[in-house]
Amino acid sequence: MKRLTPLILLLPLMAVSCNKSEDGSPEGSSDSTAVNVEAPAPATHPTDMPAPNPTPPPTPPPGPNGGTVPDPTAEIDQPTPAPVSTLPAMALSFQSNIKYLSGFEDADVTKYNRAVEILKKVVATEAFRSAVLNHTYNGAKTYVQNNGLTNAQIYQTILDAAEKLTPAKNNTIDVGVKLYYENSSIVGYTSPSISYINVNTKFFDSYVVNSVAANLFHEWLHKVGYGHDSAATARRPYSVPYAVGYMIGKIGQKFL
């Protein structure tokens, strides 16, 4: 029994030597009160816990040919519906009947046809309708020499496309075209007594097709009955032929 005494005394000393202070250094005291140190509690921090095993998704039932039956609740991509146009039907159905009367070569016809196609595409846009309806002069929604019509009525006369010499409202540009050359500043001209317009090749040859379309629309609006000052007055750009012709050329750029 006496031989056991040294061993019992040694155990408390071993327990003390295994304890460290908070900064990791050995504690200096061998007081027996330090022996009763509780074992640290198990870690409970979320990062110290093992991730739970996720429950695997159920296996789809086999199909008739050994495959799996698709899940009827799965999302199915649907095509985005095309926006519904609010334009008048006559804007979308606007047509042309252009007669090439003289001065045209094959390349000229090709170029003019491209201009006509751009013109029709522009008329079938919301941008064109908005530009015509919202045009202003001196702070009011109006045009110079507007024949007593509102902007909305002018827009409708464009869609009606009733030329003074052929007054049927057929939603179609009906006009002949003659090419000529003149070393002047005149791009083109017409008169109320003829059913065609004259286009100066001095400008036509170098114009891009949206500018050709703008000139055609300008001259055609004369056939519908709209005029402008013959001199370059301050108000002339706000007349129907000039203002709407500019709209055709500007919006037509996106169709080049």
What does this structure look like?
With 256 residues, the protein is of the alpha/beta class. Helices cover 34% and strands 9% of the residues. It has helices spanning 5-18, 89-92, 106-123, 126-133, 151-160, 201-204, 209-224, 240-252, and strands at 95-102, 172-180, 188-189, 196-200. It has a four-stranded mixed sheet with strand order 1-2-4-3. Helix 3 packs across helix 7, helix 3 (106-123) packs across helix 8 (240-252) and helix 7 runs antiparallel to helix 8. The longest helix is centred in the middle third of the chain and has 18 residues, at 106-123.
Low-confidence stretches: 1-50
What is the helix fraction of residues, given as a range?
A: 25-40%
CATH class of the domain at 89-255 reads Alpha Beta
Taken as a percent bin, the fraction of beta residues is 5-15%
At CATH's second level, what is the architecture of the domain at 89-255?
3-Layer(aba) Sandwich
Count of helical stretches: 8
Q: In terms of structural class, how would the helical and strand content be classed?
A: alpha/beta
